Amino acid sequence: MGVPVPVGVVALDPVLEAGTRSTLLACPELAVCEPADARVAVLTVDRLGPAELDMVRSTRAHGQRPAVVLVAGALASGDALHALAAGARGLLPRREADASRLAHAVLAAAQDDCTVPTELLEQVLDRPEHGRTGWAGGALSDRERSVLRLVADGHETAEIAQRLAYSPRTVTTVVHDITQRFRLRNRAHAVAYALRAGLL
């Protein structure tokens, strides 16, 4: 066995944090540590909303920029898209987060791989899209592709602007143009479409 993967726990609820820590301590291939020193952070939440998505982004931005595995009380297909767009590398419903599955998700995230439960992935991929023109009817410019790649990595508008040497307004306009042209709901929807079509 190699060196254990350093993993931290992030939770708003101390009971959720304690339960997650206890589960991770049962995995010899993992070493529980402070989130700032972690290679992977396990974020445990009751539900997934704007505050929790901000936690995914902020966790990704701190310390060693750990990969994030999100464990949630309930995950709908729309939540999965938002979580992946925010930068999560693994998704697990809390009822399925036993030591074995949680360890598997953490180890995959440590190798920059992504784990999503099969039934949740099927919901995402089979979800009907209303009013869609489809990617086949149009293409993305290099600039649009560059912006969407960074959105998919969970970067905010200001970070994208800095990385690509654009103004924040230009980044906002690019994303707006994509969502309008293809009749998409938001940034996460645009990323999901592009990923499904193999454009990112």
UniProtKB/TrEMBL annotation:
Residues 133-198 form the HTH luxR-type domain. It comes from the Bacteria. Gene3D superfamilies: 3.40.50.2300. SMART domains: HTH_LUXR. InterPro entries: Sig_transdc_resp-reg_C-effctor, Tscrpt_reg_LuxR_C. CDD domains: LuxR_C_like. GO terms for biological process: regulation of DNA-templated transcription. GO terms for molecular function: DNA binding. Keywords: DNA-binding, Transcription, Transcription regulation. This is Response regulator transcription factor.
